[in-house]
Amino acid sequence: MKSRLSITSGEVAAVTGGRILCGGSGITIDDVTTDSREPADLYIPIIGENFDGHDFIEDLYKSRSVKCCLTMKAGYESIAQAAGAGLILCGDTLKALGALGRHHREKFRPLMIGVTGTNGKTTTRELIHLILSSRYKTLRNDKNYNNEIGVPFTLMQLDDTYGAAVIEMGMNHAGEIERLTDMVRPDIAVITSIGAGHLEFLGSVENVAYAKCEIMKSMKPGSTLIANMDTECFHIIERLASDHGLVTLTYGLDAGAQVRPESYELTEKSTTVVYKKVKITVPLYGRHNIHNILAALAVAETAGISAAEAASALSSFENVGGRSEIIHNRYTVIDDTYNSNPLSSLYALESVCDVFHKHRKFVALADMKELGESSALYHIKVGEFVADRKFDGLFLFGEMSRYYADGAERVGMSPEKIKIFESRDNMSAHLKSFLKEGDVLLVKGSRSMKMEEVVDSIVK
What we know:
6-stranded mixed β-sheet
């Protein structure tokens, strides 16, 4: 990952709390990277689970590919001196990257929107970006760059031409959102939902709520928090917002929500909500997108953008691939393979029933990851939901398949309608021979389960 950054080596040392070992304080730095394959003035080595960016420092110096390197390990002074390059020792290179992102962000004053939540972050980010772009040049994260590497690189793209920015913030451990919001410092924050995600690290849905609410910690009192009133643990969000002195603007289908549709309509091609007598039709599929659209409308309202203006902007929306993408072949495949957790699975299943109630409906599921000790329970619950909603067949792959099956059978689905496969290839081969014209198949699983391979196989 690479970004522009106009700074000197002395400033880098000051911002990161580092100490210059070689090269002095006057080295001009115009760009920064964490990827050793991308030439840049400043290289920041990141240590991951399976790699250590420090391993590439010597080669970068020898090839004269960098002017300066950060390091949290000793032993590179002689090679830096031989290359006539800079070297800065710091305590933690990941925190140093975040400090540089925060330092650059503080030079500018765009309207800053932060978005977090268990589900709906990326789609909501994209909806907000489209609305704000109708009035301002607006920055947003590229792809899924929503972590402690992606967010600072996104912030480094800011300049005087941007009037707004919408930054998605993801996490799987407590403390991560707090560090991200310290960089972003949002004027408006959105919490899209709270649900069972990353329980392997967080333990409970309540702890997920507290982790997501870390987005409030760097917000100024009087700033606006936009929250989904229909979500689990809303009481935690509401209480913490009050504790931080924030103004809470709620949205949802709950009768008490401040941003609430007068009506809505779901089709396979669009989701329509009527808000303040304005009909807002967005080319998005699925019940969950009612909430995503309402969140974006709440941001528009806070930013002084009318519902009519928002409706005009959102009519041209294009969603990110793998998120409830409908593919018509001889049969219809709903590609929801980008990721999976219990709440998103229930939304996806409910949406199939809402829109395709006249068709034979099938679902192909793989494991939902990072659910810890609750994993079996949540897979059983999703299986129960499949049976309760009268799906015509359940196709399974992964270590948790038997729990999906147990849940479905417990609620009355016939075992003959449930099939477990040893591989994605076997599942794909069966589906290609089994599905008939007019059938509808939902395909879903966590990112690591690679269920997009099933989609690719059966639609080609």
